[in-house]
Amino acid sequence: MKIDTKLTRLLGIEYPIIQGGMVWTSGADLVSAVSNAGGLGVLGAGSMYPEQLREAIESCKSKTKRPFGVNIPLLYPNIEEHIATVVEYKIPVVITSAGNPNLFTTRLKSHAIKVFHVVSSLKFALKAEQAQVDGIIAEGFEAGGHNGREENTTLVLLQLLHQHSFKIPVVAAGGIANGSAMLACFHLGASGVQMGSRFLMTKESTAHQNFKNHVKSLGEGDTILSLKELAPVRLIKNEFYASVLELYQKGASVEELRSLLGRGRAKKGIYEGDLVEGELEIGQISALLDNIPTVDKLMANFLKEYELALQKKSF
Amino acid sequence: MKIDTKLTRLLGIEYPIIQGGMVWTSGADLVSAVSNAGGLGVLGAGSMYPEQLREAIESCKSKTKRPFGVNIPLLYPNIEEHIATVVEYKIPVVITSAGNPNLFTTRLKSHAIKVFHVVSSLKFALKAEQAQVDGIIAEGFEAGGHNGREENTTLVLLQLLHQHSFKIPVVAAGGIANGSAMLACFHLGASGVQMGSRFLMTKESTAHQNFKNHVKSLGEGDTILSLKELAPVRLIKNEFYASVLELYQKGASVEELRSLLGRGRAKKGIYEGDLVEGELEIGQISALLDNIPTVDKLMANFLKEYELALQKKSF
Predict the structure, then answer these.
(1) A165 touches chain B (CB under 8 A)
(2) Which residue in A259, A291, B238, B295 is deepest, having the highest Cβ count within 10 Å?
């Protein structure tokens, strides 16, 4: 029971489900499990040193024969090394984000790598299309981690893109945790979904157990898009966030904010499980996430929800 | 070609489309046009004196034989008079918002009035269900005007509600302007949609022509949820908003914000067309709205988009 869409045909995968390549969570275990289950697993290179990315790719290749991708944030300091690595290993799909899609698209495509770019607005989607990317990942305000300044929600962003009728696949991202939501996104013009938070909450992700347990307890309004003066990021309202708020109330400068944030805060929270001092990046959909299944179980359940939604004819 | 859902059966309407009862825009012309076209028109009592509401109801009754509703924000100063008026005129549907659904639901229902309550979170939806409302309007972060503090987007909010499986109809609101979005919302558990901004942008709405023309020109990122310390409201980033921002940057108190806002700012902007000094309330979907059709034309087009979406089987 494959699901056949523009996205699955382009990538040669069974289900139009991409696992978001997140920092500190998306290593070889998670990525290979998603690809083995018929989706597209994606390594999160944004939190890896060049040598770690090579190791993760080799480990992933040993765990799956199916295609997987690498997510590379374009503001990454050693970007040239990461680009060289994905070319060397002939990674079939590279997802770029947080930067100009003109920078590497042509070069990657010349090595038969398919390039998807993450956008938060129609404006950036049109730029990505001009840069000749192979697909667009349209990520709304509700998504975890770094996010756009326009604050377009996924529902609004998809309608904006739908009106333009892109020829390349559009993948919906941000606020998706249920198979019926995938069908909803299809009707809004998407041919696939990317899920981050939902895959973070699996046994295979390398997020710290403290962090996963904390996410289970979250409810509505427990995340917020903050630090807009640096780069907008959705995070949990914890003690670290309280100190950000305190700075805001004092009318702090961008420099003071940057110095409070410092380095390694996301690692401290997500990977080391420091719920107090860490920057805890997760999407708004965390209010709905109350279990930590294996990837196999998650995929099976998600596909069942999708099938049920497809069959539903009365509303 | 009726569309049969839980909502249409409950309200006795042809299409599961509710026109949001907005301040300064939703008078008898708009409301009767929507009801005559098979949706549910809703008067916006929030900007009416008691006598004006009576006049609007009488005018509306003279223009349509079909059911229409009245939206009453529960923070309205002369709330008792508005409640007495809708009882006297046997208005079939009352939509309450911005307050406690326990206040008037039982009384209204005892007069055979159906009560819908607007919520921004699952938590408030459960409270409304307990108060025995007949239906829930689930309104996300992207909606125009007053909004919830949790910042749940429509996509996230609908999934949260869907998981709970409400027996009463759930109506999706916020960020909807296209027939395919209605089908998407159906798959997320809704049995109808409420549209505000889309109906504001019709010939029949009483929003000022300056305001409508300005909305046509808006793009992504041109609205923002602001004044969260008073009551969160989505508005256009105009000169009035710039002065709000200036106060924020000075670390202004709630009192200073309240005094800047003053009285009648929304009227000034929306109804009188003062784009500089007015508070210009509109939803994020305004980025998509570039025409000002008649209600009939809008409804026909929306239903055509819905039918096309229904027929689409490949994504």
Answers:
(1) no
(2) B295
